[in-house]
Every structure is written in structure tokens, then in C-alpha cells.
């Protein structure tokens, strides 16, 4: 697919057993089960479970990495044991036995977790919005919003509508950039300004 992956994290299944694969994504969650280390790897599309054996060269690095670090792994797809199958995941019948691990970006300790749906105060969530938006509920909302907008756009296009953007006139802004001024025909000596940035209307 590209230099970082051969598959997305929602694609692997029983048809891929014994295949060598390369995956990239965020460390979503880590679990240590009596020597074996399990990592749920997350990308924009889903989750895949990774397995690290203590004899693996990558085991020590895998033990140290924190949640939300970005990694790339290479390994072999194997079948999960019957008691480990997760029917709630598209990839829940398989896991990847990791042979090689590369840390692309190491995360620091997180002020708020991404895994799960913790009920944190709104001011804390807004302060760390870049982490809050990674949580499953909000991430799914972003995807749904994109799909709805794309559906509306496609329907309008099929019905011969045109999409275009017109200039917006607004009051002058106290921000640092220079305004592009438009003189008012009704109010002599007064000016409108083209908006400098869209966030002005969200503040």
C-alpha cells in the first residue's frame, strides 16, 4: 500500500493467516499477560492486536513505549486462541506476531487518556482537544459528519448544482494581519473587511 503499511488496521482476517504484514498507527492500549505483551494498534480505520514475545528483539522497546506513541511494525498474522477471540472487532479472530518494531514518534505521559470514554471536565477536554478528538465517540462523529457532507455534495452535483465560495464582509478584526478593506456605499467613510480567518465566527 505504501512504505508504512501493507494493510489498514481493520482489514486483517482469517484469509491473511501466515501472511507477512506491515502496520502503522497509534499505541491504543497495552496489556502484559504473564510474559507476553499485547498492544492494540489503532489507525483511522480500526484496531489490530499485536503480540510481542519476550524472546523478540523488539520486546524491550515495546515494554517502554507509552500509549499514543506512533509505531510501525512488521510481523506474521496468526489465529487467536478460542478464548481470545473478540467478535466485536473486524480483526477479532487474528493477531500479528511482531518481528520488527520501529518507533516513529514517542508520546509523553498523557494529561487525559484516549482509551475508553472517561468523563473529564469540559475545560480540561478543550485544553487538550487534540487528544479528546481521538476518542472513539468523537472520532466516529467526525467521520459521520464527513460522510453526511459528502453525501449532500454528491446529490447536489448529480442534480446539476454548482458549488462556489463568495467573499464574506464583516467588521474589522483586532488580529495582527492587515485587513483588506471594502468601502461602504451606504455609510460614507466606513469600511467592511474581508475576514482574516474562519475561527473568528466560532469564538
TrEMBL record:
GO terms for biological process: aspartyl-tRNA aminoacylation. The keyword Repeat does not apply. Gene3D superfamilies: Bira Bifunctional Protein, Domain 2, Nucleic acid-binding proteins. Residues 21-104 form the OB domain. Pfam families: tRNA-synt_2, tRNA_anti-codon. Residues 122-203 form the Aminoacyl-tRNA synthetase class II (D/K/N) domain. Transmembrane segments: none annotated. Keywords: Aminoacyl-tRNA synthetase, ATP-binding, Ligase, Nucleotide-binding, Protein biosynthesis. GO terms for molecular function: aspartate-tRNA ligase activity; ATP binding; nucleic acid binding. This is OB domain-containing protein. It comes from marine metagenome. The lineage of its organism: unclassified sequences, metagenomes, ecological metagenomes.
Amino acid at each position: 500500500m505504501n512504505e508504512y503499511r501493507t494493510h489498514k488496521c481493520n482489514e486483517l482476517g482469517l484469509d491473511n493467516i501466515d501472511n507477512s504484514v506491515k502496520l502503522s498507527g497509534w499505541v491504543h492500549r497495552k496489556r502484559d499477560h504473564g510474559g507476553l505483551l499485547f498492544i492494540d494498534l489503532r489507525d483511522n480505520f480500526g484496531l489490530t492486536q499485536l503480540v510481542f514475545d519476550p524472546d523478540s528483539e523488539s520486546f524491550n522497546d515495546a515494554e517502554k513505549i507509552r500509549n499514543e506513541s506512533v509505531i510501525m511494525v512488521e510481523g506474521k498474522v496468526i489465529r487467536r486462541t478460542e478464548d481470545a477471540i473478540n467478535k466485536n472487532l473486524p480483526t477479532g479472530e487474528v493477531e500479528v506476531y511482531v518481528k520488527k518494531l520501529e518507533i516513529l514518534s514517542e508520546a509523553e505521559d498523557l494529561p487525559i487518556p484516549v482509551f475508553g470514554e472517561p468523563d473529564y471536565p469540559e475545560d480540561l477536554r478543550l485544553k487538550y482537544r487534540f487528544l479528546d478528538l481521538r476518542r472513539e465517540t468523537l472520532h466516529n462523529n467526525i467521520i459521520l459528519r464527513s460522510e453526511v457532507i459528502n453525501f449532500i455534495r454528491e446529490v447536489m452535483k448529480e442534480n446539476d448544482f454548482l458549488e462556489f465560495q463568495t467573499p464574506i464582509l464583516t467588521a474589522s478584526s483586532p488580529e495582527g494581519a492587515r485587513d483588506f478593506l471594502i468601502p461602504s456605499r451606504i455609510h460614507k467613510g466606513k469600511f467592511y473587511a474581508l475576514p482574516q480567518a474562519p475561527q473568528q465566527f466560532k469564538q
